[in-house]
Amino acid sequence: MKKLNIAIIGLGNIGSYLYKYLNDNKKILAKKNNCLPIIKYVSAKNKKRKRNIKIKKSQWLNNYLHSTKRKDVDLIIELIGGAEGPAKKLVFNALKNKKHVVTANKALIAKYGDQLAKIAEKNKVNLEFEAAVCGGLPIIRSLKEGLIANKISRIYGILNGTSNYILSSMDKQNKNFDEVLHDAKKLGYAESNPSADLNGDDVSSKLKILSSLCFNSFLNNNIYVEGIKEIDKADIDNANNLGYKIKLLGFAEFFQKNVYQSVHPTLIKKDSYVASIDGVLNAVIVDGKPVGQSTIQGEGAGPSATTSALVSDISSISRGNIKFPFSISNKERKKLKFKNIDERTFSAYLRFEVLDKPGVLSNITNIFSKNKVSIKRLVQYPIKSKRSSSIIIITHDAKNKHLKRILANISKQKYIRQKPKLIRINNL
């Protein structure tokens, strides 16, 4: 039986879990893949850190880059993280030295994936990154293999478990943003510094990768990104009263020969499938022909879910499958036109907290009229303790740039008590 010699670089929670899993399950993996996975080497920043695994002295590499030059290493698993520094050096060097690479590093792939794919293709080695997008959901392999016959028009979904947990908990537990974020950190659902999850950057990296695979294009940074930090309990409650739920969604859509990519909070109907996805779960929906609509749902993060994806990539390499990292050759990938979100049309939810005095409402509706945006629904709630009112407006479809202009104009008015809110609506 052939062997696959592996070096695991990075021994945090995921790296340690993977180490133990491969050791405990190498016999069954050998039977399934006709190839025995052997962990030859490991390396990590902190050698003395306590880990729930037994590492042989002969396995430890003091210099992680030595793994890229050793003849007895076939595959390097990068679990360092980050788009720059050691992770970048490791993966570039590994591919240049004709080593297969498996990584869970979405930031690295989103930034340098095109360059890395070119090197991998040139050297006829694999660059696999199933674990970089939505953990245990096999969305990358589904796009590369299961849905290969399809012309995909749209991909969207909940791509970040932390933000989804926060929004759904604010809804169900009647807590504000800061309270739920504290709970998420305590439960291990949010990092000590969760900014990438909260500001939409995590979803943005994942969406770039998915978009490239869906549309056979190079990675593109023309993407609108907006996070959930501005969402408060009042918006959650208002959405409920109006028949909606708020979710942070990533969208990539081929529309009129252009591709639109966006990440932003979205109001969706309560009875829609996506609205039912709560907690730390992820869900990805793909629209294509001839398949129609396909949905993949599951845990998007954590050591067990990520290990599932990593082992899937390891198994593919074990079977001798040499594949293009982005499904097709670099020469066949396209430079598509990626359009700004400002030209897209949306129905929208807007909320204004204003001084409770005559003329305010007429001024607001006049600004909407001047910008050619039609109001579908208007609700006003008095806030007696503040001598103010909360005005909620649902618009008919309008261009994003016109909605932004309205928000900017009204923000300047002296009657505004708080920063106005705009959340787009999507009838999924």
Tell me what the structure shows.
With 428 residues, the protein is α/β, with parallel strands linked by helices. It folds into three domains: 2-128, Rossmann fold; 139-299 and 333-339, Dihydrodipicolinate Reductase, domain 2 (2-Layer Sandwich), CATH 3.30.360; 344-425, Alpha-Beta Plaits. Helices cover 35% and strands 27% of the residues. The strands form two sheets. Strands 6, 7, 8, 9, 10, 11, 12, 13, 14, 15, 16 and 17 form a twelve-stranded mixed β-sheet that branches. Strand 4 (100-103), helix 3 and strand 5 form a beta-alpha-beta unit. Helix 5 crosses helix 6 (177-187). The longest helix is centred in the N-terminal third of the chain and has 21 residues, at 13-33. The mean pLDDT is 92.
